[in-house]
Amino acid sequence: MTKTAYLFGEVHGSEAVCLKEFEIWNDFYSRGFRHLFLEIPYFEAQFLNLWIKSEDDSILDELWRDNKGTAGNSIFDRDFFIIIKLLCHETVFHGTDIGHAYDTTGERFLKTVFPDSEKYRLAADNIEQGRNYYKAWQENIDESYIEANREKSMAENFIREFDKVGCDVVGFYGEAHVFSEYVGNFGISENMCSLLKKHYCEEIKIVPELLKNLITPLSLTEIELNGKKYKAEYFGKVYTPFDESCEYIEIFRLKDTENDFSAFPKKENYIPEMLYPCSININDVFVINSLNNEKSVMVQIFICDGFSEEYGNMTTEINMEAK
User: Fold this and answer.
1) What does DSSP assign to residue 14?
2) What is the pTM of this model?
3) What is the pLDDT of residues 234-273, one digit of tens each?
4) What is the rounded distance in angstroms from the CA atom of residue 101 to the CA atom of residue 119?
C-alpha cells in the first residue's frame, strides 16, 4: 500500500504558526486524515490521546506544568490542542521525539499502564532516550554527536509509529528536523526527514514543506519611525522561554521602506531567519517588540542584510539613535 507523510517544518512557540498548523490539520482532517505526528515524546502523545476523549482538561494541565519553560509550551500551543479537541476530536496523536520530561510525564505514564504491555515498553524506551540525551549534554559530549543521535532516534520512532498505521499522515516538527539546511541541527547532514527518505526510498512518499513559506500576516497596521509612517505586516507573538528579559516578542515587517534604514549604523546583535515565523528576504526591515506581562519593555529594529552559510539569511539590529 502506498502511503504519504506530509511533514511541515515549523518555528516553535509562534502564534502565526500555531494558527496555520490548525488550519492545515483541519483541512487534512476534513479529507479523512486522523493521525497527527508531533515533535513530542511517545508518552506525552499517549496522554493527549486520553485527554482528547476526557470531559475536562486536567490531563492537558498536567502536561503543561511538566513542560513549563520549554519552546512548545506557549499559550498558542495550548490553544492549538484545545481547538483540535473541539473540532477534530477523532485526532490520534503520535509522539516521535526522544523522552523529554522523562522524570515527570514519563514516570507518571508508566504508572498508568501494565508493566508487561507494549505501551509500557515503548514508554520505557522513550524515557531511556531522553535520559541518555540529557546525560550526554551534562557530560559535554560533542554537540553534533548528541544531536545526530537524537535525529536517528526520532527517525526510528517515526518509522515505528508510521508503520503501524495503514494511511497517510501529517507531521509538525521543528525546521531543523525537516530541512537539514536550516540551522538548529548543529550542522548535521542527515536529519530526521532525510533519514526517513533513505529508509523508505520510493516506496513511501515523504513530503517536506517549510511552514514559514505558507505564513501570511495576521493583520496589517501602521508604525511611525523617525517621523515617517510605514504600513506594517503583523506576524503575531513568539514565545521566548529562554530569554529572561521578556516572555514574548511581537514581530512586524515594514512595507515600502526603500533605503530609509540603510544608512543607520548597526549593533552586534543578530537574529537568524530560523527564529522568524515568516519568510525573510534581503533588505526586509522588522520591528520587534519585547513583551513582559503584556507590556512592551523594548522596541528594536532589525534589517536583513546578509547571508550566512551556517544560519541562512541574517537580520542585524539597527542603532536608531546614531546616524
Assistant:
1) B
2) 0.95
3) 999 999 988 878 889 999 999 999 989 988 999 999 998 8
4) 17
